[in-house]
Amino acid sequence: MHAQRTLRRSISCAGIGLHSGNKVTLSLKPASANSGIRFRRSDLGGLDIPAKVSHVGGINHATGLMRDAVTVDTVEHLLAAFVSLGVDNVVVELNSPEVPIMDGSAAPFIYLIQEAGIKQLAAPRRYLKALRPISLSRGDKRIALYPSDHFKVTYSIAFDHPLLRHQSQTIPITEESFIEEIAPARTFGFLEEVEMMRQQGLALGGSLENAIVIGDTGVLNNALRFEDEFVRHKILDVIGDMALVGHPIIGHLIAHRGGHALHTAFAALVLQETDAWTLVDAPAPDAATAPVMLPAKNAVRAIS
């Protein structure tokens, strides 16, 4: 049986919101079986916001959730870490409206989860297994889910920039492959876009320490962690956004030039197409892998 899992103990960290620029304390706490992933604003009375596509409240260069006018933004990197490490039930408590950006990747969240430890629960985990193709297109952007025995992501990007004219990557998603090949990939943006976003009150917490900034001639800050780090980060984003269907996915997800708006719209479409999938208790026998410890170079100090 593939059992549901939660954290073994609570753990906290501090950081800043990428768009708000606000300081935030983030705490990850164990939760009971079948409670799912829930965000809790401790500064607003502790209202819980389920990590479900029905609570998507805004898409403005990041994925946001909303319930009763209470919001939590930039949830996608943390959600990707949870679903890829098999954490089904957790309370995410924060005292600000945005999940901290950390270094722009999911690697710090992997470290926090592994430091907290993972505890198996008695209830079975249910996977959403694709039975037939589902697709969504918006102009030159498209995304689709096809039947497969395992969860695999193919993503391609194309920008009008010599560094990013075309990148494509296909990766079967396991705990090990996510930790080693996807989690360290950082968010990125173009210099002129960053300046425009700041004029709109966004990216106020962005810096060369938590994002890859691309100028006319190339990357302005640190060396890339992967030659194709940009498309790997898009895979990270879509894994986090598709976590909003509420179940781990068994299928081949293929996206081209997508973004948070397309990802979340597709997550909603998948749930509507009820004849296109079924819920199963376990994937194929060899789909699971043992947890892998994150290399120390990607660690972040936890406040536990």
Describe this entry's structure for a reader:
- The protein is an alpha+beta fold and 304 residues long.
- It folds into two domains: 3-125, 2-Layer Sandwich (Ribosomal Protein S5, domain 2); 127-280, lpxc deacetylase, domain 1 (2-Layer Sandwich).
- The protein contains six helices and 19 strands.
- The protein has helices at 76-84, 107-116, 175-182, 191-199, 229-242, 260-272; strands at 3-7, 11-16, 23-30, 37-41, 48-50, 56-59, 63-67, 70-72, 90-94, 118-124, 127-130, 134-138, 141-146, 151-157, 167-172, 188-190, 212-214, 249-256, 277-280.
- A hairpin with a 3-residue loop joins strand 6 (56-59) and strand 7.
- The longest helix is centred in the last third of the chain and has 14 residues, at 229-242.
- Residues 287-304 have low confidence and may be disordered.
Tally of separate domains: 2
Overall pLDDT score: 89
User: CATH topology of the largest domain, which one?
Assistant: lpxc deacetylase, domain 1
Low-confidence stretches: 287-304
Gap between N and C termini: 31 Å
Mass-distribution shape: globular
Question: What is the gyration radius calculated from CA atoms?
Answer: 18 Å
* Biggest sheet layout: 7 strands, mixed
- Treating each run of at least 4 consecutive H or I residues as one helix, how many helices? 6
Structural class from helices and strands? alpha+beta
- What is the CATH superfamily label of the largest domain? lpxc deacetylase, domain 2
Return the CATH architecture of the largest domain: 2-Layer Sandwich
The top-level CATH class of the largest domain is Alpha Beta
Oligomeric form of this entry? single chain
Secondary structure: helix percent: 10-25%
In percent, how much strand structure appears in the residues?
25-35%
The count of β-strands is 19
Instruction: List SSEs in N-to-C order.
Output: EEEEEEEEHEHEEEEEEHEHEHEHE
